Amino acid sequence: MSGARALDQAEPPAVAVDNTFLGPLWQSPLELGADLVLYSLTKYVGGHSDLIAGGCMGGADLMARVGEMRTICGTTADPHTAWLLLRSLETLHIRMERAQNNALILAERLRADPRVSAVLTAGGPDASPEQQAIFEAQCKGSGSTFSLELPGGEAEAFRMLNALRLFKLAVSLGGAESLASHPSSMTHSDYTPEAKARSGIGDNLVRLSVGIENVEDLWADLDQALSAI
């Protein structure tokens, strides 16, 4: 953030942070010096996979300009979507806390499972020391979305994903229900092989968005799916 403000310009660029993955509970970019914070409200804030919306927050001066562009572009949420978001805000803390607790339990068990090569959580033991230091300085929690790497490649990942029964195969995240996806062939399918390699997206990578179901039911589903590899 300091780098952007150090640029020799009459008006340094605003620092905008997409905080969708950690949500309003586990990281506060504005308190850390960001000018704007962005959310896909579809995810944790909406939390029920029944709306599409986005949000932008920041200081009054910048938000006045954002509001002007919103009026010009017509990106105001419809009344029903606004009502759904207000409904969801009533349970935001409960949902995010329950989902993170479930994710922490599952990640710990998966790390101890010989059928899994690596478990990639925000600031976790598989992260670099630099990333761990950033996590400790900025984050209040790791959230409920994480990835795991399986021995093998696409065939093994597909066998696991096809065997899941409680986890649904979908690319979204942050809902009350648990989701699983294969980034290489789904969210990042348009990346070149070189771009995937730079981003650490292998064919053996599976992403999980853990929901609020009974954690033992979720573990039973993962356990039987891993046995299908």
What report would you give on this structure?
The mean pLDDT is 94. The chain has 2 domains: 2-89, Aspartate Aminotransferase, domain 2, CATH 3.40.640; 92-226, Aspartate Aminotransferase, domain 1. It has a 5-stranded mixed beta sheet. A 3-stranded mixed beta sheet has the order 1-2-3. The protein has 9 helices and 8 strands. The chain is an alpha/beta fold.
**How far apart are the termini?**
44 Å
Helical element count?
A: 9
* Helix/sheet category: alpha/beta
* CATH topology heading of the largest domain: Aspartate Aminotransferase, domain 1
**Unreliable residue stretches:** none
Topology of this structure?
Layout: H1 2-5, E1 16-18, H2 23-26, E2 36-40, E3 54-58, H3 60-73, H4 79-89, H5 92-111, E4 118-120, H6 129-138, E5 145-149, H7 154-163, E6 168-169, E7 179-181, H8 193-199, E8 205-209, H9 215-226
Parallel strand pairs: 1-2, 6-7
Antiparallel strand pairs: 2-3, 4-5, 5-8, 7-8
Task: Give a summary of the structure in a few sentences.
The chain folds into 2 domains: 2-89, 3-Layer(aba) Sandwich (Aspartate Aminotransferase, domain 2); 92-226, Aspartate Aminotransferase, domain 1. It contains 9 helices and 8 strands. The protein has helices at 2-5, 23-26, 60-73, 79-89, 92-111, 129-138, 154-163, 193-199, 215-226; strands at residues 16-18, 36-40, 54-58, 118-120, 145-149, 168-169, 179-181, 205-209.
What distinguishing features does this structure have?
single chain, alpha/beta, Aspartate Aminotransferase, domain 2, Aspartate Aminotransferase, domain 1, three-stranded mixed sheet, 40% helix, globular
